[in-house]
Recover the amino acids of this structure.
């Protein structure tokens, strides 16, 4: 399988299946911010995805080189590059899925919210163009702070009269990927066999791993729970500090984004039982957006799954998460409304 998915009986794409779903029958995918630290390896991974027939790479710098390089890969997707605002329309027309890793990354000592001033404007501009040129596309938003950029995108789409909450997803897959890895380390399991739901949002205490719901069922001591929760919540900062000024997670993020995009595409082509966590327009808490497990289908998010039973530790974590998350959501909304 291209990506191994939890509980997915049809994960084994046969060679014949790959051919049948690639080429002219595949999906058209655009990456906005394709020349960046995430964008480049993500472009490589999407070029390898048999469900992608056309891959558009857009950035404000360096797309000709990245596109030429990627285009030499002997995989099915046709790659085209687009450079600068004047080519944004052509980059977007006809796209089924738009993945957005455009924007500045953190340096040591910064919070994701410190990126708001620059990235909010970038996300607004790109979403205004999506509303105009591919209003039916599914959007995977990676740019930080995700807790605010997703509400910004929703407000832009509402203003343009094209908002469909089913088609907008903030990508929190990296939190799940990290949680699976760290839990596997503690439990002595293969990370591919582990699935940890991570809910809430994508920054510090808003990242809430539900360790009581880990599959396969596992129990952790209080010390392990504290260690795992802290490591998952601060995984991004761990990378930012290790890179010491050279940016934040790019390779593990590209992997996570490609895994999430693959889940979206498989849902879009009608595969059943595709469930992943994402930060979405939601009614499962009193907040207007929340990350939780969602079922992906032909039209995007087909169902938002309930949080399930939380233990006392997680209930406390949820209250903390909601407080910070509410303020970040409000900041995003008022950036567009004011
Ligand atoms: P980067 O600086 O390496 O790349 C960003 C790219 O965006 C650059 O190539 C830049 O030219 C491009 N860009 C800037 N303005 C643009 C615009 N208006 N239109 C199109 N492209 C534009 O940064 P990176 O490491 O790739 O990170 C990108 C973003 O992703 C950051 O905001 C980072 O915080 C975020 N991120 C999110 C997650 C997550 O889990 N959701 C994980 C890692 C990083
Ligand atoms: C991450 O979780 O790695 C990203 O959100 C980047 C960051 O700034 O931590």
């Amino acid at each position: 399988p291209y990506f191994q998915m939890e509980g997915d009986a049809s994960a084994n794409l046969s060679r014949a299946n790959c051919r049948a779903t690639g080429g002219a029958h595949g999906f058209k995918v655009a990456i906005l911010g394709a020349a960046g630290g995430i964008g480049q390896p993500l472009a490589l991974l999407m070029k390898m995805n048999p469900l992608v027939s056309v891959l558009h790479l857009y950035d404000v710098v360096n797309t000709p080189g990245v596109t030429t390089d990627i285009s030499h890969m002997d995989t099915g997707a046709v790659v085209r590059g687009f450079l600068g605002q004047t080519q944004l329309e052509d980059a977007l027309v006809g796209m089924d899925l738009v993945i957005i890793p455009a924007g500045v990354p953190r340096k040591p000592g910064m919070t994701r919210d410190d990126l708001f001033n620059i990235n909010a404007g970038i996300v607004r501009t790109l979403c205004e163009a999506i509303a105009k040129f591919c209003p039916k596309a599914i959007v995977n938003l990676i740019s930080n702070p995700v807790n605010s950029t997703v509400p910004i995108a929703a407000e832009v789409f509402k203003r343009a009269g094209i908002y469909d909450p089913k088609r907008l997803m903030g990508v929190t897959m990296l939190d799940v990927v990290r949680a699976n890895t760290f839990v596997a380390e503690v439990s002595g399991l293969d990370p591919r066999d582990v699935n940890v739901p991570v809910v809430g949002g994508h920054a510090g205490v808003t990242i809430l791993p539900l360790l009581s719901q880990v599959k396969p069922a596992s129990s952790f001591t209080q010390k392990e729970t504290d260690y795992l929760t802290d490591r998952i919540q601060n995984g991004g900062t761990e990378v930012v500090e290790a890179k010491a000024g050279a940016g934040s997670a790019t390779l593990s993020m590209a992997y996570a984004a490609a895994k999430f995009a693959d889940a979206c595409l498989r849902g879009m082509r009608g595969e059943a039982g595709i469930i992943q966590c994402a930060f979405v327009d939601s009614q499962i808490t009193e907040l207007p957006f929340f990350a939780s497990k969602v079922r992906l289908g032909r039209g995007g998010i087909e169902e938002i799954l309930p949080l399930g039973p939380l233990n006392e530790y997680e209930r406390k974590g949820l209250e903390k998460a909601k407080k910070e998350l509410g303020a970040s959501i409000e900041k995003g909304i008022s950036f567009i409304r004011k």
About this structure: Residues 105-106, 112, 144, 174, 235-236, 239-240, 248-249 surround (2S)-2-hydroxybutanedioic acid (ligand 2) (CB under 6 Å). Residues 91 and 121 are 19 Å apart (CA to CA).
